[in-house]
């Protein structure tokens, strides 16, 4: 609603719309009595007069010289001024045209009065939230900015006498009740007129917050469930941490309202992410997980095998399909598992939401949506929140709006807001994407419910993010065992005196006759009985099944018992005609009249030559892996910084017309008429947020190859939280399979550092059995040939289960003349080689070999070159480990036994404390004996991963290569 339509006004409808549009764009027009006027170029010359005065005087001279809306406005203003009417008329009154009264003094004063009213209204809209009664504790300075804008105090004094009585009563009450009570609105920074008007309509319209008796009773029942659930846990497990919701019990009806309203508007799937506070309550009363499943998790005799690796109950997730009782529509709810890294789940939820929308063809987010719950301290303090917000409007990452609910406890563990952030509100980060922010006093349930309903409607209407800030308190300490009085004594004295919101609201409804005391007590007794019965059932351990904690089930992918349908993997090679077809498309431009860069023409010709010669380099092998999967119906998504072209200008999956702006072509999507779609998208300059997003995307379906590429290998360090908390531990900790692929450009080139290959050796687990791949937590490879890269990508999808795949991809090998593979290594019947054995002269006479060097990745080509230069092809064998984890025990043992008289060495280009040696050494000991040690060859330990000095790099390279082929180097040494 227009801000002026709040008041009976002398302005005509068109003039009102113009003024409202002006204000939404941030223009401040004020009368001379309230400060310098805004100036605009004057047709009369001079320095520019007040725009209103300029038009007014022009109108006096010639009414036709201004827009007809202003002609109407000035006519009516003059008529009313001449009639002496002191009481404004409503907008609906239409006056007939009368002779113009040329009274400059009266009309000019009237214009000034209108502008002063405008300033007053605008002051309330912009800064009314500063004085709104948001804090249930009444200790405003502990959280919110207590500044009182002078506009709200001084503007009335500047108004004309004809407005005094009116503004002193009806208008100020209306403005105050809208902007300065239990709801504080921040939206005037939004640079869209329609959106600002929409919010005004929702909050300035009188009587919008009226609820029926049935709605009030439903709200009360939800509050009962929220509060009595926490009370029940406190009674039964008083010494257990559970991170309860006491102090913000209204969050449960708030979330249910968002879901109800969204369901009413057509949403069928809601994906939630949240930290641990209140998580059990959300599982019980929003997702509707069986209470006995929750209660049995408190059993102290529960074994780790019964709950994954034994993560705490308030970190786990849930997936549930049910009927929404308010709308009688089916709805699917997912709560994504999340560690104590609080906001780490934000991009994961967004990625999962984007994937669900993609697979449903839901391009505008009308079927699938996300809700993120935050804590106030984490929302302001965690950088991944900012990263996630900045994904919200990017074409390949948008989820068409997210409803953010901030549980604003006004404290972070023991840190009060004055020490935790530099902005007045914890929600200020959301302003960066023009998301409206609705602050609301959590002790006013009806205000909360109305705000949440508006938030859900906003998201559905504008497909943009919105923030609901529930200003509340934390009745207990950081957890139930914590003593908050140590650090916040005054706050907690007030909290101890605070009447719970359930009692406040029940007393209100009883007083107004909506419910009786008996009905209220019966509602409490009913839910208490439900909890007690579930508690009794929870003692039967047979009811516990880990599948109840899955947040992303894959129907039909596994057997009923959750095991793979088979333990075999078909050959990953493909027919030669398919390879040739993909190679031909990869070296062409499928669109007509599409002009590409001359340098790119040379690259495409090179691909065509390789295809004719039945050979591939790294980029073409990747193209063929992706293209063959698309042919088989597997969606492929590649994301990361500059992945469309490739950081090293090798990929070029998106072609750009050199003469038409933003005209692009993705040849991969022109391979076959009925192929699966290929998505390749440059990401924002973010690792933490984007990797989390892609992890969530891969979580949604097992039938997609989802890859994230770091620009350089060490860039993954910024995303280490996602790797440690979700990828490495995914299956053991979260009972979750995930097939995400990480491409980490690696290799010591005398440039900035690559990825550290083994960030956490203890993160790997293996088995000697056939189930080795299934039993490991992730797969790590460092391929040395394009063919092996091709096979490992295809194997990732053809496996009957999903494991994260870490691939150390090369830099210099992208164009290395020896790093080429023949079609013969990729055709039907071929497979990924976990180990590539020596196949030269040394292999033909193994008994004469004096040294067997094991290595992985790019250093192989350095070793081969050095061996050739020294003429040691018959005395030194070189074997490549292509798969690092799970460790290929069987094949390594076979290679070692093939050369019984050779001493063994492990050669790596990385520094000793950063490469693979500490990982492979004990595994070699497992299959060999101390009588036959494996020696280390490589760079010395160092603090920095790599030098940036080319000469230093070459000197260290020459040094360890000399050691590798010095056949007397290890004589006389003890292991």
What would you say this structure looks like, in words?
With 975 residues, the protein is of the alpha/beta class. The protein has 4 domains: 4-129 and 145-174, no CATH class; 213-549, Thiamin diphosphate (ThDP)-binding fold, Pyr/PP domains (Rossmann fold, 3-Layer(aba) Sandwich), CATH 3.40.50; 576-746 and 782-825, Rossmann fold; 838-964, Multifunctional 2-oxoglutarate metabolism enzyme, C-terminal domain (Rossmann fold), CATH 3.40.50. An 8-stranded mixed β-sheet has the order 1-8-9-7-6-2-5-4, sandwiched between helices. A 7-stranded mixed β-sheet has the order 14-11-15-16-18-17-23, sandwiched between helices. Mean pLDDT is 84; it is low at 1-50, 85-101, 142-149, 159-168, 304-308 and 759-770. It is found in: Mitochondrion. GO terms for molecular function: metal ion binding; oxoglutarate dehydrogenase (succinyl-transferring) activity; thiamine pyrophosphate binding. This is oxoglutarate dehydrogenase (succinyl-transferring). Belongs to the alpha-ketoglutarate dehydrogenase family. Its cofactor is Mg(2+); thiamine diphosphate.
């Amino acid at each position: 609603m227009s801000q002026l339509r709040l008041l009976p006004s002398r302005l005509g409808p068109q003039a009102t719309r113009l003024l409202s549009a002006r204000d939404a764009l941030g223009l401040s027009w004020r009368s001379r009595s309230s400060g310098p006027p805004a100036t605009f170029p004057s047709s009369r010359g001079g320095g520019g007069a007040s725009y209103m005065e300029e038009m007014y005087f022009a109108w006096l001279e010639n009414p036709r010289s201004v827009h007809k809306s202003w002609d109407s406005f000035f006519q009516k203003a003059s008529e009313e001024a001449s009639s002496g009417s002191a009481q404004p008329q409503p907008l609906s009154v239409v006056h007939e045209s009368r002779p113009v009264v040329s009274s400059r003094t009266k009309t000019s004063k009237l214009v000034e009065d209108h502008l002063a009213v405008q300033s007053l209204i605008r002051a309330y809209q912009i800064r009314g939230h500063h004085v709104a009664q948001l804090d249930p504790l009444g200790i405003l300075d502990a959280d919110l900015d207590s500044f009182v804008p002078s506009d709200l105090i001084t503007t009335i004094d500047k108004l004309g006498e004809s407005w005094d009585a009116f503004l002193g009563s009806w208008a100020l009450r209306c403005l105050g009740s809208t902007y300065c009570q239990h709801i504080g609105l921040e939206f005037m920074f939004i640079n869209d007129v329609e959106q600002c008007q929409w919010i005004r309509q929702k909050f300035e319209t009188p009587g919008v917050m009226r609820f029926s008796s049935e709605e009030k009773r439903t709200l009360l029942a939800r509050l009962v469930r929220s509060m009595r659930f926490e009370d029940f846990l406190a009674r039964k497990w008083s010494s257990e941490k559970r991170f309860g919701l006491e102090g913000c019990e209204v969050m449960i009806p708030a979330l249910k309202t968002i879901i109800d309203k969204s369901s009413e508007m057509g949403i069928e799937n809601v994906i939630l992410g949240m930290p641990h506070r209140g998580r059990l309550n959300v599982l019980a009363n929003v997702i509707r997980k069986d209470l006995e499943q929750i209660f049995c998790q408190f059993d102290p005799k529960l074994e780790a095998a019964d709950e994954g690796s034994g993560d705490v109950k308030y970190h786990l997730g849930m997936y549930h399909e049910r009927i929404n009782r308010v709308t009688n529509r089916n709805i699917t709810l997912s709560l994504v598992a999340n560690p104590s890294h609080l906001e780490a789940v934000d991009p994961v939820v967004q990625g999962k939401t984007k994937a669900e929308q993609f697979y449903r063809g839901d391009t505008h987010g009308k079927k699938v949506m996300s809700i993120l719950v935050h804590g106030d301290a984490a929302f302001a303090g965690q950088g991944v929140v900012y990263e996630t917000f900045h994904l919200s409007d990017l074409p390949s990452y948008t989820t068409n709006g997210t409803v953010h609910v901030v549980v604003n406890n006004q404290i972070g563990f023991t840190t009060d807001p004055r020490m935790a952030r530099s902005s007045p509100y914890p929600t200020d980060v959301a302003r960066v994407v023009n998301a409206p922010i609705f602050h609301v006093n959590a002790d006013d349930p009806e205000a909360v419910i109305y705000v949440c309903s508006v938030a859900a409607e906003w998201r559905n209407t504008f497909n943009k993010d919105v923030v609901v800030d529930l200003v509340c308190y934390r009745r207990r300490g950081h957890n139930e065992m914590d003593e908050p009085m140590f650090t916040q004594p005054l706050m907690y004295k007030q909290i101890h005196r605070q009447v719970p919101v359930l009692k406040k609201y029940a007393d209100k409804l009883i007083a107004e006759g909506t419910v009786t005391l008996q009905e209220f007590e019966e509602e409490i007794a009913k839910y208490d009985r439900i909890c007690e019965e579930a508690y009794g059932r929870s003692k039967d351990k047979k009811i516990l099944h880990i599948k109840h904690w899955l947040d992303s089930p894959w129907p039909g992918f596994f057997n009923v018992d959750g095991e793979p349908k088979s333990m075999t993997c078909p050959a990953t090679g493909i027919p030669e005609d398919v390879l040739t077809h993909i190679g031909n498309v990869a070296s062409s431009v499928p669109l007509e009249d599409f002009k590409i860069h001359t340098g790119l023409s040379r690259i495409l010709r090179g691909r065509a030559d390789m295809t004719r010669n039945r050979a591939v380099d790294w980029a073409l092998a990747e193209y063929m892996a992706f293209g063959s999967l698309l042919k088989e119906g597997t969606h492929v998504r590649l994301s990361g910084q500059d992945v469309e072209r490739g950081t090293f200008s090798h990929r070029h999956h998106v072609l750009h017309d050199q003469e038409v702006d933003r005209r692009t072509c993705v040849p991969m999507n022109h391979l076959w008429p009925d192929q699966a779609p290929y998505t390749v998208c440059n990401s924002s300059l973010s690792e933490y947020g984007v990797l989390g997003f892609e992890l969530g995307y891969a979580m949604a379906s097992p039938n997609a190859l989802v890859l994230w590429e770091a620009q350089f290998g060490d860039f993954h360090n910024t995303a280490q939280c996602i790797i440690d908390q979700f990828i490495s531990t995914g299956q053991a900790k979260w009972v979750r399979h995930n097939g995400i692929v990480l491409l980490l450009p690696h290799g010591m080139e005398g440039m900035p550092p690559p990825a550290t290959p083994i960030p956490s050796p203890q993160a790997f687990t293996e088995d000697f059995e056939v189930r080795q791949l299934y039993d490991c937590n992730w797969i790590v490879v460092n391929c040395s040939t394009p063919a092996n890269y091709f096979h490992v990508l295809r194997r990732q999808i053809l496996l009957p289960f999903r494991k994260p795949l870490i691939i150390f991809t090369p830099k210099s090998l992208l164009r290395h003349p020896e790093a080429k593979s023949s079609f013969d290594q990729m055709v039907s019947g071929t497979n990924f080689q976990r180990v590539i054995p020596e196949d030269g002269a040394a292999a033909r006479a193994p008994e004469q070999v004096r040294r067997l060097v094991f290595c992985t990745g790019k250093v192989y080509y350095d070793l081969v070159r050095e061996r050739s230069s020294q003429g040691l092809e018959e005395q030194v064998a070189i074997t490549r480990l292509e798969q690092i984890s799970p460790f290929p025990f069987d094949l390594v043992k076979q290679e070692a036994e093939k050369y019984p008289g050779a001493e063994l060495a492990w050669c790596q280009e990385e520094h000793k404390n950063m490469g693979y040696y500490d990982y492979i050494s004990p595994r070699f000991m497992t299959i060999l004996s101390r009588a036959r040690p494996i020696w280390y060859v490589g760079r010395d330990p160092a603090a920095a991963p790599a030098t940036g000095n080319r000469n230093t790099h070459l000197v260290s390279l020459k040094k360890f290569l000399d050691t590798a082929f010095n056949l007397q180097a290890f004589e006389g040494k003890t292991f």
